C-alpha cells in the first residue's frame, strides 16, 4: 500500500485518487477539523495540522530504540540520532 497526501488535502492510494475516510488493509486515513490523519495498525500515526502547516509523528513504544532516519533513534540519547545504517554516527 502506497499513500500520498498532498498539500491541498487530496491524496492518492496505490496510484489512484481516493477520498476521505479511507481504509485499506492496515491503513486508515481521515480528515478532521483542521487536520489530516493517517494511522497504521503496526503503531504509526501521522497527524498533519492544515492550518499551521506542520505534522506530528506518533510511534508505538514497541519501536523504542529501533528507529533510524529523520525521526532519530527514539531512545532518549541525542548522540545517536544521526546513526547511519553502517553504524557510524554522522555529524
Plain-language structure description:
The chain is mostly beta strands and 91 residues long. It has two domains: 3-59; 64-91, no CATH class. Helices cover 0% and strands 40% of the residues. The protein has no helices and eight strands. The chain has strands spanning 3-5, 11-13, 16-18, 22-24, 27-32, 35-40, 44-49, 54-59. It has a five-stranded antiparallel beta sheet, with no helix packed on it. The protein has a three-stranded antiparallel beta sheet with strand order 1-2-3, with no helix packed on it. The protein is elongated, with a radius of gyration of 15 Å.
The counted number of beta strands is 8
Radius of gyration, in angstroms, nearest whole number? 15 Å
Specify the overall morphology. Answer: elongated
**What would you call the structural class?**
mainly beta
Strand proportion:
35-45%
> What's the end-to-end separation, in Å?
34 Å
Q: Whole-number average pLDDT?
A: 83
Question: In brief, what are we looking at here?
Answer:
This protein has 91 residues and is mainly β. It contains no helices and eight strands.
Amino acid at each position: 500500500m502506497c499513500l500520498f497526501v498532498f498539500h491541498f488535502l487530496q491524496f492518492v492510494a496505490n496510484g489512484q485518487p481516493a477520498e476521505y475516510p479511507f481504509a485499506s488493509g492496515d491503513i486508515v486515513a481521515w480528515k478532521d477539523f483542521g487536520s489530516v490523519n493517517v494511522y497504521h495498525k503496526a503503531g504509526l500515526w501521522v497527524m498533519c495540522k492544515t492550518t499551521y502547516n506542520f505534522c506530528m509523528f506518533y510511534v508505538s513504544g514497541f519501536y523504542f530504540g529501533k528507529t533510524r532516519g529523520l525521526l532519530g533513534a527514539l531512545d532518549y540519547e541525542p548522540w545517536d540520532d544521526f546513526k547511519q545504517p553502517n553504524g557510524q554516527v554522522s555529524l
